Amino acid sequence: MDKHAIEVRGLTKRFGRRTAVEGVSFVVPTGAVVGLLGPNGAGKSTTLRSIVGLQAPTSGESLVDGVPFDELDDPASHVGVHMDGFGFEGGITARRHLEICRIATGAERARVDAVLEEVGLAGEGDRRVRTFSTGMAQRLGLAAALIGSPQTLILDEPANGLDPDGIRWLRRFLRAFATRGGTVLVSSHQLGELEQIVDQVVVIKRRVLFTGPLEDLVGGGGESLESRYFDLVEGATA
Predict the structure, then answer these.
(1) How is domain 1-65+153-162+184-238 classified at the CATH fold level?
(2) Which residue ranges make up each domain of the chain?
(3) How many Cα atoms within 13 Å fall on the side-chain side of residue 164?
(4) Is the Cα dihedral 40, 46, 49, 54 positive or negative?
(5) Is 178 helix (H, G, I), strand (E, B) or coil?
């Protein structure tokens, strides 16, 4: 049986009368880059937050390396997370922010400089976070996700605010991370960029519309991920 870095099984989350996701099931194979796609309000962030224990599902479960997130020993070594809502204290430096993350995860001191270098912020560690552009803040968020040397990254719209050079850098970084044996689950609206790096795709609109290899979705007829994505979501009921 293939090993899966992440398994989502029958995930349903309701907020009062509103159902954010219903019966969502998919797997993220170890060593793959998997794109989680869907329109605004489709339940992508709800799904990601449920995987990493930030909210309890109404029913169903999510597993990371075979166990629920809150049962992981040393969770930061299993999964690094960067998503909306993970803010920064603007008055401290980037280095101080990462030092707080390092202490919280139990990582070695050397990891702060290592991750600053890894995300291209080696010369910016002593700048206060409030002076960062949106793109620099995205890189800092990725650095924080990497601080525990995780095997898996879960990223929610990591390309927001990046310029074209930054987007190209992110694409290469994520592909290299997977080539070294890491796993990536990434939510993004930038379908053209995702098509260049993902191995598999999960498309949701409250329910799963497609899950599987990218090539199974786009086929051999020259269709793009974007065109097939809109075929799915526009034909789905809410």
Answers:
(1) Rossmann fold (3.40.50)
(2) 1-65+153-162+184-238, 73-150
(3) 0
(4) positive
(5) helix
